[in-house]
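Duplicate of earlier report; Class I SAM-dependent methyltransferase input re-posted below.
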Amino acid sequence: MSIPEAFLMLHREMTRQGPGTPEDVRWALSQIELPEHPRVLDAACGPGADLVTLAEALPLAQIEGIDQLPHLVDEARDATDRFSNVTVSEGDMSQITGFYDLIWCAGALYFLGVTEGLRLWRNALAPGGTVAFSEPALEADASDDARAFWADYPQVTDLQGVCARVEEAGYEVLGTRLIKGLAWAGYYAELSARINGLRGEGNAALTQVLDAAEREIALWRAAPDQVAYVLVLARPRLMAL
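Output:
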């Protein structure tokens, strides 16, 4: 088993692939106006937790989920099979075509880069459309423990830095919400259970991945109030005539 295969094994059959809650989705929807029958995309939808919340909140919407990993597509389809207005397919979030009234992206836009990804998605948005995405954020006065948590993500900035990247892409920030505390605790509780269930299988690659995941959890526990994502609502600025 390779390291990538071991990583995928660890994260299989988890409710989420990263921190977040249904309340985050509902907050985003409460902050924006959508048409009566909106078209919504969950980019990098993972196993479909946010697709479920979107479908519950928007019964008249046409909702699509895409993910590059086939097993996550299968899990998302299973999670949403009771909703007639949700479809899930394999897809690359760098090649989205529209038009969507809302693009939701939880904890995955950093793979493209905030500025780069938003620029790519501009032409996939319907007029007045919004992107909601979450991105790591680290305040200037953060502790050494919090900085150590994000050591493998040197692009991390504070909230103002995230907003600056949004504006560089030609978008305006409509609102922000911090994701920390319970959202992370719930994710790591499930991940810890997966680690414990996979221990003792004797595979070197899997052991390495499990050890790395435990170190990540330990780093979070050292600064749980300072490790955060920021959920950002962004809309393209109108072009000057």
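The two ends are 57 Å apart (CA to CA).

Merging into the original ticket.
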